[in-house]
Amino acid sequence: MWSVWILVINLHFIKINAQFNNQIWQYRSPDKYQIMEKPTFYPNHQQSHPRIPMPVYEFNPNLYSMSFPISIPPSPSLQAFTVPTPSLQNLLFQSTWMTNNPPQYTNQKEYIGYVTEIKKNDVMNRISTKPENDYDISIHIRNNLPDFLSGTSDDVQKKFYKIVLNPDESFQQKQSKLDQLVSTLDEKNQELYDRYRRMKELEEREKRDRVHAIVASMSNKAQTVFAKIDLAYPHRSIIKWKKKFGPVFTIWLPGPIIVLADYKLLRETLVSQGNIFAGRPMSFVYGIFSNHCPDGDGIILSQNEKWSHQKRFALRVFRDFGMGNNMMEQKIRHYTDILIQQLRKQIGASGLETTITDLHLPITFCVGNIIHDLVLGKNYEYGDQEFLRFKKLIDSILKDFVSIPMLVVDRYPVVRFLLPTYYRFCKNGFALQRFFLKHIEEHEKAIITSTSKDDEPNDFIDAYLKNMINKITLALNSGDLWTGGMETTVTTLRWVIIYLIHNPDVQKLMHDEIDKNLGTRMVCWADRTCMHYTLAVICEVQRIINVLPWHILHATTCNTTLSGYKIQKGTVIMPQIGAINFDENLYPNAEIFQPTRFLNSEGTLLNFEYFMPFGIGKRSCLGEALARTELFIILTTLLQNFEFSAAYGKPPTLKRYPGMVSVPQDYVCQIRARNEVV
User: Fold this and answer.
1) Within a 10 A sphere around the Cβ of 327, how many other Cβ atoms?
2) Any binding-site annotation on 621?
């Protein structure tokens, strides 16, 4: 009976989708069929997402895949699995589906029946719609409480009965209270403690086995409905779809997201209608660390008046701490000098004129200490374990944030109970939050015990505490500044070194410019006016690496229109700057590293209005001034002191890891000392 109803619902939704998108099924051959597209669309159709140009479905059982770059809404039986990925090998759970021969289907009806059975047999009957039935330990002991509580004191028995039989509390509340009660038991109730612990361990094992079976089954069956998108280079897929569907279209990740892949569109939305398109998605994952506040929290993930207030205050604090003047520049030069000394020490320790090393940690400590000094008023010695743990948390969070499991959780929060990625993401995120809260409390104690209440704040946290900002908000703001201010700058500098190793002629021209204009004196921010080639190299690296490949999603704060389409409040928007960076009309031979594209015939730096490595509009990077200064001073100082070449004659790969940030794959390089800067 279930199978019949699900089949009817599936066919009904497919019919609706085909009608509303003015598309029809066309039988092409015994092993292939396709939804053929017509040029008319229905922008005013009232649904939860705008009717933007849609794609084609293409099914070929011989390939065992279905591709839909941008989608009509998948039917409910498929929707949970329409997540873009080239394969499922990046999931924690893997099954034997890769070695199995896929079934062959010759028509739509047979295929839909197959998918319906998948949902019925492998999902609906195995995942309870009420997760508490799977995880509520009180359910498993409720019918056997007398035996379970045998040998325990009357007081403990009363407490157990009161918790387990309370109809007004959720299973999470019961579970928490039971855990707390058992943890406080004395030696007289040791037997109950042991029974409870064994039951929890058994439940955990059963849960893991069940999750492995379910997710493996989902992986085995859902491969046919996964879209094809390059997770490390999403702009490549976006550009391909832009050529076919125009500069604005919808993708499903797995919820609907409108992609803007044109500079003029970005100007129209993020600048001309800046307030309207300055919102953030108030989805499940975006609200995990802010306790799902109505307008979010922190700087990056808040919106409306809350975001405006946080941004204004942060800019004022930055200005007070010398952002854009000599005070901040001196801080950058100080930590850059420590970086140079560390690298020279490594060369000296090798006993040779060169050394082979990984620059990741030295650069991370340099940039990280600049941010730490600004936010926390402290710094770390090279190799400090607390700093390394902190960096590890950041890396994991940024990687998981745009991972396939978290995209699914964001759309279907109930499945979070099945995905270890969700637990890791939460564990690391809250650990990071506790790290900042600990430092906030230390600052607060220092302020309370200070003899002078009128002392100027020493760092970002001091300034916030003196203005009585909520501690959780302050912790989120600190994390936002640290994440946004460190990881993108470190990643850009690492990529610059890679491209200089691949292009020694470019490195030679940079050395010549530095020797001519600076010699051996210390570089300063004012020197940029005569360092056009160095700036052009930085610009070209920023363009080609597209350090935030997925950008940070926006959302509309009210109903509006976009290119003639009606857009509802809360619609999620993805500004695809990567598609602009690789637009052949703007950057000929865009895939080629070519710094001279940013120079005119006289060798002077060109400022393209469509070049926006720090974003555009009201949500552009808050720390742009700091990042520009860091990139110029650190890179110029590195090139002034060292020459970089391939280690063992093998240059680093240009491949990157998928994630929120375009992180290069780990590499080592050979460095040779040049001039001694004075």
Assistant:
1) 11
2) yes
Cα separation, 468 vs 477, whole angstroms: 14
Which stretch of DSSP H or E encloses residue 276?
none
Which residues on neighbouring strands pair with residue 572, listed in sequence order? 555
For residue 389, how many other CB atoms are within 10 A of its CB? Answer: 12
Put residue 603 in one of left, alpha, beta given phi > 0 → left and psi -120 to 50 → alpha. left
Give 228: exposed, middle or buried? Use CB within 10 Å, 0-12, 13-18, 19+: middle
Q: Cα(336)–Cα(668) distance, rounded to whole angstroms? A: 20
- Tens of pLDDT, residue by residue over 431-467, are 988 988 888 888 888 877 776 656 677 778 888 887 7
Is the four-CA dihedral 253, 256, 257, 261 of positive or negative sign? Answer: positive
- Report the SS3 class of residue 575: strand
The predicted-structure confidence for 77-135, as pLDDT tens digits, reads as follows 323 333 333 332 333 322 222 223 333 433 433 333 333 343 333 433 333 333 434 34
494, two tokens? 């690492």
Q: Would you state the structure tokens that stand for residue 551, as one six-digit string?
A: 């950008």
User: Token pair for residue 621?
Assistant: 């990077």
Tokens of 522: 């210390």
| Residue-range domains of the chain with CATH | 2-128 (no CATH), 251-673 (1.10.630.10)
Where are the extended beta strands (E) located within 198-321? 248-252, 256-260
Handedness of CA 76, 78, 81, 82 (dihedral sign): negative
Instruction: Indicate the pTM of the whole model.
Output: 0.70
Q: What's the chain's Rg over C-alpha atoms?
A: 28
322 pLDDT above the threshold of 80:
no
State the burial class of residue 354 (Cβ atoms within 10 Å of its Cβ: 0-12, 13-18, 19+).
middle
What is the DSSP pairing of strand 560-562 with strand 565-567? Answer: antiparallel
Least confident of 288-302, 328-342, 548-562: 288-302
CB 228 within 8 A of CB 237: yes
Instruction: List C-alpha distances in Å: 536 to 423, 499, 605.
Output: 43, 13, 6
Cα dist. 2→114, 115, 121, 185 in Å?
14, 13, 10, 47
37: which strand partners? Answer: 23
